[in-house]
Design brief:
315 residues; alpha/beta; Rossmann fold; Dihydrodipicolinate Reductase, domain 2; 2 domains; 7-stranded mixed sheet; 33% helix; 26% strand
Length: 315
């Protein structure tokens, strides 16, 4: 598919830069970079050279097959419909369309069969939801899921390039744990998103689910401690076998770290053990490069899945 015309909207941001790197690695040659007006006219690196940054406007997307959006919700709501009208398939990373009726929320290894249901827009899940469902899906298929609890330890890169620069500027001793999301009652918006998106992706609308999300002074790489209760008994050894054979997962013992996950395409998983407080309880620990598999790579995999299906249908 290297002859496809691909637009990267939000190309100067943290996820946009990783998206460009991955597209170059995968051999895509017809790529255009878009950003806000203040970035227009500059250049971003691409495949040893560079791309001129164009202004992202509703009239800018003619001639594109795919648009990969890594911008805020309001901007996506403004620009995605225009890109669809211009003939592009849009993969959107914001929360604008994730829970919208009729819009697939995709992790290709988990629910890729839903890709054909799109009407021009596919939502790319929250980075923490991608990481979580990659670990949950094999266990769901093996023993069923009765309930899930998760604590996330999310790197500052999840808050964007400016947050990364702030962390680089401070001394490590000044780092702190924060919960820098808006709160609605007892839960942060991140915790609400994580529950809702996990339920939608796994097609378990009533799954009992509780989350606590924390921002940690790590530059890149999200971590998660996950407690699950399965419907059927599952030993840690059998769980490890199911996870080791699943796509986009790599078992790392005794435990993975976010530093190990940086630059990797897989979710790293370890500390697979029994939860002694539950009859069918297991505990897991995962790490994931939230800019790569948690955002950019997942979006590109969605695009390639959709376009491969289009090519097969046309053959």
């Amino acid at each position: 598919m290297p002859d496809l015309a691909i637009g990267v909207v939000g190309a100067t941001g943290a996820v946009g830069r990783v998206t460009l790197d991955l597209l170059a690695e995968r051999g895509h040659q017809h790529v255009r970079a878009f950003a806000s007006e203040r970035s227009a006219g500059g250049r971003v690196p691409y495949d040893g050279a560079g791309l001129e940054v164009e202004t992202a406007t509703p009239a800018a997307f003619e001639g594109l097959d795919v648009c990969l959006f890594s911008v805020g919700t309001a901007t996506s709501l403004d620009l995605v419909p225009a890109a669809v009208a211009a003939g592009a398939v849009c993969i959107d990373k914001s929360s604008a369309f994730r829970l919208a009726e009729g819009v697939p929320l995709l992790v290709p290894e988990v629910n890729g069969d839903r890709a054909r249901e799109h009407a021009g827009v596919v939502a790319n899940p929250n980075c923490s939801a991608i990481q979580l469902v990659c670990a949950l899906k094999p266990l769901l298929e093996t023993a069923g899921l009765r309930r899930v609890r998760v604590a996330t330890y999310q790197s500052v890169s999840g808050a964007g390039a400016e947050a990364m620069e702030r962390l680089r500027a401070i001394q490590p001793a000044e780092g702190n744990l924060t919960m820098d999301w808006a709160f609605d009652g007892d839960e942060s918006e991140e915790e609400v998103k994580l529950r809702a998106e996990t339920r939608k992706i796994l097609e378990l609308p009533d799954l009992p689910f509780s989350a606590t999300c924390v921002r940690v002074p790590v530059l890149v790489g999200h971590s998660q401690a996950i407690w699950i209760e399965t419907e059927e008994p599952l030993t840690p050894e059998d769980a490890r076998s199911a996870l080791a054979g699943a796509p986009s997962l790599r078992v790392v013992e005794p435990y993975p770290t976010p530093v190990e996950a940086v630059g990797e395409d897989e979710v790293l998983i370890g500390r697979i053990r029994r939860d002694p407080t539950l009859e069918n309880g297991l505990v897991l620990f995962t790490c994931c490069d939230n800019l790569r598999k948690g955002a950019a790579l997942n979006a590109i995999q969605i695009a390639e899945l959709l376009l491969d299906a289009r090519a097969r249908a046309a053959a």
